[in-house]
Structures are given as C-alpha cells and as structure tokens.
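ok so for the tutorial part 2 we go from a plain amino acid sequence to predicted structure tokens. step 1 is just haveing the sequence, like this:
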Amino acid sequence: MGNLNSFSGEKSNGNYTLNDTGGQLAPGLFSGTNYKVRSGFQYVSSIISFRFKISSDFVDFGVLNATSPVLRTQTLTISNGSAYGYQVTGAENHALLIPSSGAFIPDTTCDSGTCSETTAAAWTSNLTYGFGYRCDNVSGTDCSTDFSDSTFYKHFANLGSNQTPQAIMLSSNVGTNKQVQITYKVNVSASQAPGDYSNQIIYVATPTY
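step 2 — the prediction. this is what the tokens look like for a chain of 209 residues:
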C-alpha cells in the first residue's frame, strides 16, 4: 500500500517472499508473557486471502400458492485477514416484479408492519405477504444480531427506492471460511397477479484496513 517510509512492500523470487518496512518508527515483532505486538506495514499483509463465495447464483421459488410461504436458502462464505475486519452488504435492485406489466410482490413488513431494511420483526402468519430474508450463523457469529429470534425477518434495501444497502455479515476479526445461511421467504395473497416475478440481490464484500 502507499506509505511514507524509506521503503516497504513485498519482494520475491523463486525461492523466497519478503515483506519489509524501513524508516517507520519501531517496526518489528514485540512480545512478552501476555502479549504480542506486530508493528510495521509488513504485518498488514495477511496470510489469509480475502475471499467471498455464494453457494449459488440463482434462487427459484417455483410455483407460488396463496397463503403458502416458500423458503429458499443460500450460503455465504468469507475468509478475511484484513486488519480491521470486513462487511458484506445486501440490497435488491427492485421488488420482485413482472417487468412487462409492472406487477410486483411487495417487500414484507412482517406481522406487525414494523420490519424494514434496517429493523427485523416476527413473520409467522400465512396472511402476511411479501418478500424478505433472515440470516443464520453456520460457522462464526457474523450475522446481524437482529436475527437472534428464529422468527425474525427483514426485507432487502431497495435500490430502486434509493434505500441504502445494509450490512448482512460483518466482523472486526480475521477468520477463514466463516459461513452464514440466508433464508429467503416469499408469500402471496389470492389476488396476486399471475406471472414470472424476478429481481436481483446484490451482495458486496468489502475488507476494512
């Protein structure tokens, strides 16, 4: 990365790779009985590569029947070695809709009418309609704590309505192969117009330095 040291960076040939820092105040490894301090730009370069994977790129809800919620899942996996953690934000390009007619399935507001892109709430009634999601930890504890109750859902921030993407996964720690399960839920009423509904969910993974 850019810096104001005399020299720093990564040097390598066929036999070695070297990270170094020169000219910075007190670079190096310092340790004691109960602590270890790594000082210098060479320690920002982590042995853990930043990787993000989605288990599938297509979610098919099949044929929807009124008052019969359908659930589908994806797994998000991340490895992160950046100094100050990471976050994964999520958003939809628009509500589930039929592009040719403009008919759409609204984003859920949950049973109480209070859940949103920022607030989770219980969604258990088959008479509550819409599209939403929840996040459950598989490996690690990186889901938002908003989903601590197994009945709680949110809806995605809607980019078409100028809503701000929200953090789905986040952590201030390094780690490898941390996983969460995203559960998508859709439920429609008997008056929902028939047709093929679709949208895009956009996940953006960003390391923090």
